[in-house]
Amino acid sequence: xxxxxxxxxxxxxxxxxxxxxxxxxxxxxxxxxxxxxxxxxxxxxxxxxxxxxxxxxxxxxxxxxxxxxxxxxxxxxxxxxxxxxxxxxxxxxxxxxxxxxxxxxxxxxxxxxxxxxxxxxxxxxxxxxxxxxxxxxxxxxxxxxxxxxxxxxxxxxxxxxxxxxxxxxxxxxxxxxxxxxxxxxxxxxxxxxxxxxxxxxxxxxxxxxxxxxxxxxxxxxxxxxxxxxxxxxxxxxxxxxxxxxxxxxxxxxxxxxxxxxxxxxxxxxxxxxxxxxxxxxxxxxxxxxxxxxxxxxxxxxxxxxxxxxxxxxxxxxxxxxxxxxxxxxxxxxxxxxxxxxxxxxxxxxxxxxxxxxxxxxxxxxxxxxxxxxxxxxxxxxx
Length: 382
Known about the structure:
By secondary structure, the protein is an alpha+beta fold. The chain folds into three domains: 2-201, no CATH class; 204-258, Roll (SH3 type barrels), CATH 2.30.30.60; 266-350, Alpha-Beta Plaits, CATH 3.30.70. 54% of the residues lie in helices and 15% in strands. The protein has helices at residues 2-10, 13-46, 49-57, 59-76, 93-126, 135-165, 171-179, 183-190, 196-208, 250-253, 280-291, 325-346, 369-372, and strands at 216-219, 222-229, 233-238, 243-247, 257-258, 266-274, 297-309, 314-322. A hairpin with a 4-residue loop joins β3 and β4. α5 packs antiparallel against α6 (135-165). The N and C termini lie far apart (145 Å).
């Protein structure tokens, strides 16, 4: 062992650097393989989604953190100082150490981001947004999405600050970034920028939650579901697969409709326009019979009433509830189609009519004075 150490010390510095890189990679491989083998076995025994995600998604980042940590430690040990404390090394050693440290900071940031993403995926795995009664799930996932992005920004700023702190020329910039790395500091840092209104609106939306992921909204007359909430805008998925991009501050400053704010259940209405002679009770019985056969109806709300009338028609409103906006819409369509066909088949004479009263106008067969002056042709005589 002593011979090996002496041999390494006698080699040129660049060879020593390469040897320590190889040694660091070997040790990082051993440590990572052993640790992740333990994690894999534990995940298999406990059937843990989180441990399995750690094994699959963080292996590379963890390996490079260990590798660059060892490289920095080994290379720092190669630095030599003179009697006055000044470095006495080849010109390329310090820049290489700076590069290794920078790589360490970047790989550390990647590992932290992977951990944050794994934690977020674990929460998403636990809370299924596809359930019908998913109010609690949507609330949690909305906050999670916003917090995940804020943490990502914090990691980026802190990493950039540590990288800049290595260089004397930009150390003041790095110190300023590090000082403002907290969430409050981030808000202040962005305050001078145009997006401050959207950023603050994002905080309000994340915690007061006027909208959530998968909420059914009507914005500017368009119906859509909240597909994504970013730091500055919201993506709405329109029913025909279009996407509407809406700035966050619009949901704070302007009014909009949220059909799933407190519950996913909705009441749909269908309007029928018929003649005054139409038997309303017959339609009420038929509508109830039909709705009771529909799986789309959640058996909570149903009703039929004459809600309006005009000179020519009366308006009958049929209401029925569904578990969510999609089922309610389909239920409305089914009721409308069925009742139109039922009226056409059973009461075609009671469809809306326009009534006109025709009365004969008085006529005379006497010739007017002007007609008396006209010459009478032979063929005009009767």
